[in-house]
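Design a sequence for this backbone.
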């Protein structure tokens, strides 16, 4: 599969955009990011600078999808660093699970 341009997360359509530089990933253009999920505009942005593998971008996509799921389910705790750690671990684990078991094959 090619990386998607849209995904549905718990019934909400999210647009997935790919940016060529890490400042463009940030909707405010202030931080250099690999990915960002904006739950207000239902937009996920992923860095695609030509030097990243589809697998690493898929990993970031799942990370941002998990952020969206956490937002939708109200699972955002007060400790943002701890939430980020959990989201990161789940993203890596889910990407590995889906790719390793060939539920997803990237082109
Ligand atoms: Zn994150």
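Sequence:
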């Amino acid at each position: 599969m090619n990386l998607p341009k849209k995904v549905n997360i718990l019934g909400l359509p999210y647009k997935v955009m790919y940016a060529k530089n890490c400042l463009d990933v940030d909707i405010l253009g202030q931080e250099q990011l690999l990915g960002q999920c904006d739950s207000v505009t239902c937009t996920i942005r992923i860095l695609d600078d030509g030097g990243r593998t589809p697998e690493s971008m898929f990993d970031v996509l799942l990370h941002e999808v998990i952020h969206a799921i956490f937002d939708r389910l109200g699972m955002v705790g007060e400790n943002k660093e701890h939430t980020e750690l959990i989201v990161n671990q789940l993203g890596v684990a889910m990407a590995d699970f889906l790719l390793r078991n060939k539920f997803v094959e990237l082109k």
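The mean pLDDT is 94.
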